[in-house]
Write a structure and sequence with these properties.
about 400 residues; mainly alpha; 2 domains; two-stranded antiparallel sheet; transmembrane helix
Length: about 400
Amino acid sequence: MYDTIRYHVIPPAFVVFFTGVVQYLAWSGRGASVDFSALWGNEFAWRFLGVSFAWAYVSLLVPSRKCKGPVTDFGQVPEYQDNGTLYYWATLVTFVLYNFFVDKDLSLKIYDNFPQILGALNTCALLLCVVLLIKGRLSPDVREKTVMKKFPIAYEFYSGKELHPRLLGVDVKQFTNCRFGMVAWQIFILAFFFAGIKREGFNYGFAVNVLLQSIYVAKFWWWESGYFWTLDVALDRAGYYLCWGCLVWVPVLYTFSSYFMVAHPPLTSPLISLLIFFVGLSAVIINYAVDREKEIFRKTGGECEIRGEPAKYIDVEYVDEKKRLRKSKLLISGFWGTLRHLNYNFEILAAFSWSCVGWHHGLAPFYYVVFLTGLLVHRVFRDEEKCRRKYGKYWEKYCSIVRYRMIPYVF
């Protein structure tokens, strides 16, 4: 029964539900009536996406430093462009200058055509998922010995076939997750903020909402090379869940609080907005500090100091898919010696901070926080399942030392 639900029921149900919810959010966020013509986009939407896709694609072709992700169990070593920070700032500055000096109504056009942009994005993302499924079945980049081939086609479409596929000379996940998804998050919230100023004037709560998100997104680009070691990239395959999610779900849900605030301006006072800003900023900084601690530990092979003392860790051994004995280390000092996923707590707090400036308008500004909490809790269990299967007794030892996941004495 469990396998039937997991592999046969949930994938098609999620594809239908989430694909439809995208357009609902686009309409409900501004209180507009349903317009099914938006499902196919319009001229502005397709031109906007054409430029965005081309800009993201070119960023992955220009000569730059390279960085690598973790070696897969079947011996593949993914390689990525390491020019994310430059790409982010070039995109941000170009958008702002174009918005103020070339087309002063650009932000309003993006806001007014947002349902059409999402409709066009939906079409592109679903087509990409079909291409990835066909490619994974007929011409994978790496032939791997995996049980994935036994799964039903609906599950393969949803979860993906290949771990690190490349199309047209670029890594698919770096294109969808980073070069489009994360930049779209930044560009859309800025566009919504500028549109809100044109419609209602400057709003302190709205400014805090966008500023905190911008700091969080900028932090991601500073840390992009570390992102390639996270579950999103190292474990999840390129399919609907990940690629459609970053091309469509990120631009609509992650930006929703800002989109909603154009038509529903926050009512928080300047003082309360400032206090919320400092809480959110602290959460982003600590979230980065936690992630940075593990990144330094990984890059130095454990030969580093954490809080002035040599890093403590557990030496582990495991057998990969090719029956080769490998070694690794599990960090048990610093932040990572207190809770297994302390970084998730501060990620949720940061999202809550930039959302709560709109609390006067009910639950809508908190949609992303609710989703993020569920996503991260689910990710905790996925990570533990992977680690328990991979490390065995060493993982049990780690859990006996770092006993709690996110909340001391509770969870």
